[in-house]
Design a protein that fits this description.
Blueprint (H helix, E strand, L loop, with lengths): L13 E11 L2 H12 L2 E5 L3 E5 L9 E5 L5 E9 L2 H13 L5 E3 L7 E4 L17
Parallel strand pairs: 1-4
Antiparallel strand pairs: 1-5, 2-3, 3-4, 5-7, 6-7
């Protein structure tokens, strides 16, 4: 199996992943996997969502599991970018593919691009426990 071609230079500079939001059909089973199995910390919980982070993360959460009545889907992915210009480049890049990202940031705050991927059921090989 060959790896996909790397885009170099990239259309915008990503410093790291910010967060992801996944809709799951069984919130309790998903919580058991991510908290009890993997060891993520539940920062907050409501009847319909669980906000998770890694043990050493300073942010409130990096993964949100939301209760869904339908098939599990990846609702949103957040990427932190390097500069204000990267926010503009990211917005233009995703617009070419029909996505409408929400971008926020300035010189004194974090620069985050939120992208809603194509909404479709998650591949069981990639997100096995989101299918619970």
């Amino acid at each position: 199996m060959s790896l996909p071609q790397t885009a170099f230079p990239p259309p915008f500079q990503v410093t790291r992943a910010s967060h992801a939001v996944i809709a799951v059909s069984d919130l309790a089973k998903s919580r058991a996997f991510y908290v009890d199995g993997i060891g993520l910390v539940a920062s907050d919980e409501t009847r319909d969502a669980i906000y998770l982070r890694g043990v050493e993360e300073a942010a409130h959460h990096s993964l949100v599991l939301k209760r869904a009545s339908g098939a599990p889907v990846a609702e949103r992915v957040g990427l932190r970018v390097y500069t204000e210009e990267d926010l503009d480049r990211a917005k233009a890049h995703f617009a070419m593919y029909g996505r409408r990202p929400r971008c926020k940031g300035n010189l004194t705050s974090e620069r985050i691009v939120r992208v809603q991927p194509c909404i479709r059921p998650l591949n069981a090989a990639v997100w096995p426990l989101a299918l619970m």
